[in-house]
Amino acid sequence: MPRGMSDRRTVELVVLPALLAALMRSVYQGLGEVDGAPLLAIIDLLDQAIKEPLEGMDAVRRTKLSRRSMRATTAGLSAICGEHSCAVQWLAVARFIIRLTEAEVIAVAEGSVFCRAWDAMIAVGFGSVSEEDEGLAERLADVLAAALGREGLFV
């Protein structure tokens, strides 16, 4: 973790891979061990990306920020999960992350653990989604942004 990074920024960097990891775990559980095996490598990369911003911190601060990250991740997932397919939920998180990168709120370093996980998720894909689902994912990305904003993140 870069020196002097704020607690808020650290939590933001944990939440993004945590959202994706939770969705990947859900997909993996639905597929089972044989069909879901390719997702294990992605989940492992996302778990590494979750831990990276917390490395080098004292135990008290790391625990505090881990709890805050978990609360924010839960709030984000609660906002977008429901009757929507995992593909739509994943697409909503992806759209949110793309918006953050386009607005230069975050930067995904080429070759970083998160970048490798992202590339692997894109390669695995989630099948095609309808135009209606694309629109739903865009709206859910807004809902996710609002939920994380209420947690004080990405504002």
3D architecture notes:
This protein starts with 6 loop residues before the first helix and ends in a 5-residue tail after the last helix. The chain has one domain. Helix 1 crosses helix 2 (59-80), helix 2 (59-80) runs antiparallel to helix 5 (131-150) and helix 3 (86-102) crosses helix 5. It is 75% helix and 0% strand. The protein has 155 residues and is mostly helical. The longest helix has 45 residues, at 7-51.
Task: Itemize the secondary structure elements and their pairings.
Layout: H1 7-51, H2 59-80, H3 86-102, H4 113-124, H5 131-150
Keywords:
globular; mainly alpha; single chain; 155 residues
Report the portion of residues in β strands. under 5%
What would you call the structural class?
mainly alpha
What's the main sheet like?
A: none
Instruction: Summarize model confidence as the mean pLDDT.
Output: 90
Give the overall shape, derived from the CA principal axes.
Answer: globular
The SSE string, one letter per element, is HHHHH
Rg from Cα: 15 Å
- Provide the number of structural domains: 1
Low-confidence stretches: none
Helix content: over 70%
Number of strands: 0
Q: Please report the number of helical segments.
A: 5
**What's the N-to-C terminus distance?**
21 Å
